[in-house]
Amino acid sequence: MEHIKLKKSGVEDSNADTVVNINLDRALCRIAHIHKGIVEVLRYPKRAVTVTFPIEMDDSSVQVFKGYRVLHNNTLGPGKGGIRFHVDVDLDEVSSLATLMTWKCALIGVPFGGAKGGVICDPKELSHHELRRITRRFISELGENIGPYIDIPSPDLYTNEQTMSWVFDTYDVMHSGNNNRAVVTGKPVSLGGSVGRREATGRGVCYAARHFITKHMVPGLSSLDGARVAIQGFGNVGAVVAEQMHCMGAKIIALSDSQGGIIDNEGLDLAEVSAYKHEHGSLIGLPGTMSATNDALLEIDCDVLVPAALSRQIGAHNAQDVKAKLVVEAANAPVTPEGDRILASKGIQVLPDILANAGGVTVSYFEWLQNLENQQWELDEVNEKLLKKMNKAVDASVERLKQLTTEESEHSRDDFAYPLDLRTAGLAIALDKLVAVTEQRGIWP
Ligand code: NAD
């Protein structure tokens, strides 16, 4: 059996592109007989579009914005991935998030490739009308690079159902006379959105965590019922994770948003938290809670830690101080490879993003199917199908991990710089599928 040796990087992996490549190599060095040339195809995005456009602001001034849309791979189907509005958006990060979408779609089993997009802007400083103009102009600048069978956007950081409505409307105006609903997912239900899509990522995170915990692979934790949970981020994903985990019997002891965190070891009252956040725009100061910095929240003594905000939150700088038994990656790429290595050395399991947060793209796929047929499924049907997909992917990843563990026992531990974990196992499943389908289709011409 031939294995690629992966050397220790020895430096903190702060670059998004580097992180994706390190993780790819971690899986590659453990998969025997894989077609290396085809894997090299998967290392690079198929297409990266950069657009710059002017926007007339509310005060009549003109500002120029820059946006990106990257299609990483479309071997399994059209591109699929979110659009984010954030000051830190850059091409490297968008490319790496598009790559993650390729692995995620292949692992969870939806017929899409990976894509991602974003506009560099500070949505908190922009009015509703400015956001609408930015969205419309961005989509019109992307032109034929998006489409129901080409590349299908969805919500991500600081974009939501309203943003997706503008995406749809812009595309529809540009392609009148067709059923264009399938061009974008995460729309409001009244505009062809799927019931359950808004909650799907968070709900999927909880389904995956609950199922994984029952496999007795997390020392000292056998159920979500009674588990003490800390969540970084209280947006679309984090708020739903809090609510769903609470329904599953967990105690939410800490939450945070961009301004900081709150702690109540007796368990936070989520209705009070939401009402306070709605009124004050921040969690800090909720009566009866202690305040904490975002850094401190990640190091809190809890059973389950759910990073549900930004990338690269747990790495060489703080992984040693994480006290959770299980880290569930609701956000994309919150744990770096160095973070993985340190957490593994402490016996802390990580449920990786490509598995844990795949519920969003799964229900996006359901929404796309409904749109193509002008159907509207019931919530029970959506959730039941989502549950099956999440559980199946967890089962497959755990099985693959066991298989890789058996194979690894035949090698010297020094052969591998990074630990064998669920991320590697999930990526191995995705790579097997992508390489097999690429070979079946054949390299053009
Ligand atoms: P969102 O914009 O609705 O919420 C983001 C949250 O993170 C907000 O509460 C914000 O205050 C908080 N935040 C921002 N900076 C922070 C910081 N430094 N520390 C702590 N909190 C901070 O975004 P979302 O849709 O909930 O996405 C969150 C993450 O989940 C992102 O990584 C996104 O890529 C990932 N994700 C989202 C979906 C989806 O369907 N929305 C699907 C898969 C993955």
Describe the structure.
The structure is a single chain. The chain has 445 residues and is of the alpha/beta class. The strands form two sheets. A seven-stranded mixed β-sheet has the order 9-8-7-6-10-11-12, with helices on both faces. A five-stranded mixed β-sheet has the order 1-2-4-3-5. A hairpin with a 5-residue loop joins β1 and β2 (62-73). Among the domains are: 44-179, Rossmann fold (3-Layer(aba) Sandwich), CATH 3.40.50.10860; 199-356, Rossmann fold, CATH 3.40.50. The model is unreliable at 1-11 (pLDDT under 50). It is built from 14 helices and twelve strands. Bound molecules: nicotinamide-adenine-dinucleotide (NAD). Nicotinamide-adenine-dinucleotide (NAD) is lined by residues 155-158, 201, 232-238, 256-258, 294, 308-310, 330-332, 357, 360. Residues 155-158, 201, 232-238, 256-258, 294, 308-310, 330-332, 357, 360 line the site of nicotinamide-adenine-dinucleotide.
